[in-house]
Amino acid sequence: MLRLLSLELQKLLHNRVSKILIFVSFVLPFTVLILSSIKINFFGFFTLELGELGIFNFPIIWHITTFFASQFKFFFAIVVVSMIGNEYSNKTIKQNLIDGLSKKEFILSKFYTIVFFSFVATLLIALASFFIGLYYSSYTEASIIFRETNFLLAYFVKLVGFFSLCLFFGMLVKRSAFALAFLFILYILEYIILGLLTWQTNYEFAEKIQNFFPLKSMYKLIDQPIQRIVMTKFPDKSEIAYDYAVHWHEIGIVLIWTSLFIFLSYRLLKQRDL
C-alpha cells in the first residue's frame, strides 16, 4: 500500500498545477477560522460577532465546520480527474503497466491517494474545529466536546465517496473537463428523476428514493446546519425541527457506492485496450 501511495504522491507533487490545487483544497476550508472572527458593524448601532452567537460551541461546531468544509471538495476533485487525464495524455499509464504495475495496483494507487488526502483533510478540520470550539465554547466537559464527532466520520466518507465517483468518471471519459461535466450531468439527472417520481407518486416518496442516488446520498451524510442554528435560538418553534444526525445506513449507502465506483473503474481499465 505504501509503495503504491508513494508512487502516486510523487506524480502529483511533480505537477505544479496539482500542487496548487491540493494546497487550495486544504487551505480554503480553513476560512472557517476567518469566519469565526468576523465582526459585522451595523452602522455604528451594534456589532455582530459570529463567534459570540454560539454557533462555534460544542457539539454543534462539528456539524457546522464539516458541512462548510465539504463545500470545497470540488478543488481536489479536479486533482482526481487530472490524475487520470494526465495518465492517458502523457501515456504514463501504459508505461506503468509495462514496468510491472498491474491494472489492479494502478487503480488501488489512485484509491489509496483518495483515502490519504481525505484523511488528511478530515484531520485538519478536526483540529481546527477542536481549537475554535475550545476558544468559543462555554462547554468544557469531554462528554459534550466529543459528542458529535461522528460528523468527522461522515465528512471522511463523503470525501472518499465523491472522489471515487470522480475517479470513475475520469476512467470512463479519459479527459478531465469531460469528467467534471459528467458530475454536473449526474446532478441534473438526479433531479430530473426526482421530478418524474414526484409526478408519478408524491414528493415525500420521491425524495426517499433520491436519497439512494450517488450525489444526494453523499450530501445527506451532513445535512445543512442553518436550520439547526435557528432551532437553538428559537427552541419553541417545533415546526422547524428536522433530523440532522449522522445515520449509519446513510454511511452504508455511500460506502456501497464507493465500492461500486472503484470496482467499475477497475473493470473499465481491465477491459480497455491500452
Automatic annotation (TrEMBL):
Residues annotated as transmembrane: 20-40, 60-84, 111-132, 152-173, 180-199, 251-269
Keywords: Membrane, Transmembrane, Transmembrane helix
Keyword Membrane: yes
Pfam families: ABC2_membrane_2
Name of this chain's protein: ABC transporter permease
Organism, as annotated: Lacinutrix iliipiscaria
